[in-house]
Amino acid sequence: MTQPLQLESLEQLGWRFGLETIQVLLAELGNPQNSLRVVHVAGSNGKGSTCAFMASFLKCAGYKTGLYTSPHLSDIRERFRVNGTWISQSDFNRHTRLVLEACRRVEKKMGHLPTHFEALTAIAFCWFEEQKVDWLALEVGLGGRLDATNAVPPPALCLIAPIGLEHQNILGKTLGKIAWEKAGILKEGCLAATVQPHQEAARRIDRTAREKRASLWLGGRDFHFRKTSRGFHWEGPGFKGDIQLAGFPEYQIANAALALAGVQLLKARGVDAKQRLVRESFSAMRWPGRVEVVRQKPLVVLDGAHNPDAAGVLLSSVKGLFPKKRWIVLNGFLKDKDYPASTRILAPLASLAIATEPASERAEKGVNVFKAWERAGVRSLVIRDWRKALGLALRKLSMEPHAGLLVTGSLYLVGDCRKCLVGLKGLKTL
């Protein structure tokens, strides 16, 4: 007799790139995605934040708004939100059971099970359809063209956040190839916007948009933005003015500016983008795990800077916010990340680095991260168990009253540490 399938057991399947399996799975479930009106967001850094800005605006504008992001920081249910509220445990359990039953039917048809992310994406579409959301802000998992989220019908709007070198073994070795994969969310004639710090990525996205006859707004060409003391100034079609952000680091400005471009484009879809709603919703948005201060005395900051581009903006943000602070840096990475480059970038901040391993089968060995810190000229330790590593970091911090603790690298590590530091599980787990 076949054992009941568990959602966690699908994690060992890793990633699968291609839409065939997710399409068969969704067909088994009645194609719930076909009823959804979607803002689809891809990118390397900031796509989750961009989704959150869009969701905050749409909610403030009076729409029932879904938000699907990954990975989670504290609880898997936080990936699924309607108007900011997580899916209930009972709804999550019910939809998980229905999707896993459908996964078994897919296995009989195709000879393999859907992946963990494909199953989660199916759960999301089923729940958002049941909730009858007006809009869904949908974050790509990995890439874009072959990502499970790309099984949705043509979105109302596509946004592409800044792109950097990541997942090169899967997406390609150059920024142009990675941008081509991420631009795969663009559909014929769609509305789209992007902000790109690298011209190679911008050119590739622009070319793809022309090929698909998509209406693309490109930051620096079709709209412009600059930092202000309390947020940013934006100029483009339909809006000119200042937007305040609530305590966000500088690097969030590009994500917020991209979302604001998206808001202006949605006017063509009948969305009323009053300036008052824009200002209220952007200033109200909160997004954990991004230069998030979880303790003041002693200072503890969390940031999921998982690649070199993110490490660079983290460096400038931390220097700007805490100019004289020296840091104990606790970090760990997944295997497909360029952690040697990230450690070199963050080295000027660190008085001590503690290398560890995120709770993931894809975790890079802590000793390899330790060696990268040593090559970067930073005094380092390695403790494979992240709980013990966090405990040591906090003890070291208590002995250095003028230092701060910066937890960074994989969002899996940041999320687990956050559970302890903000009391979701308590420090007794250390």
Q: How would you characterize this protein structure?
A:
The chain has two domains: 7-284, UDP-N-acetylmuramoyl-L-alanine:D-glutamate ligase, CATH 3.40.1190; 292-429, Mur ligase, C-terminal domain (Protein-Tyrosine Phosphatase, Chain A, Alpha-Beta Complex). It is built from 14 helices and 17 strands. Strands 4-3-2-5-1-6-7-8 form an eight-stranded mixed β-sheet, with helices on both faces. A six-stranded mixed β-sheet has the order 12-13-17-14-15-16, sandwiched between helices. Mean pLDDT is 90; it is low at 424-430. Strand 12 (292-295) and strand 13 (300-303) form a beta hairpin. By secondary structure, it is α/β, with parallel strands linked by helices. The two termini are 41 Å apart.
Quick overview of this protein structure:
The chain is of the alpha/beta class.
Mind describing the biggest β-sheet? 8 strands, mixed
Poorly predicted runs are 424-430
Number of helices: 14
Give the spatial strand order of the biggest sheet: 4-3-2-5-1-6-7-8
CATH architectural arrangement of the largest domain: 3-Layer(aba) Sandwich
> Strand percentage, roughly?
15-25%
CATH topology category name of the largest domain: UDP-N-acetylmuramoyl-L-alanine:D-glutamate ligase
Query: Which of globular, elongated, flat, extended, rod-shaped describes the shape?
Result: globular
Termini Cα gap: 41 Å
Q: What's the β-strand tally?
A: 17
| CATH homolog superfamily of the largest domain | Mur-like, catalytic domain
Radius of gyration: 21 Å
Any idea of the CATH class of the largest domain? Answer: Alpha Beta
Query: Portion of residues in helices?
Result: 25-40%
Mean pLDDT: 90
What is the count of distinct domains? 2
- What would you call the structural class? alpha/beta
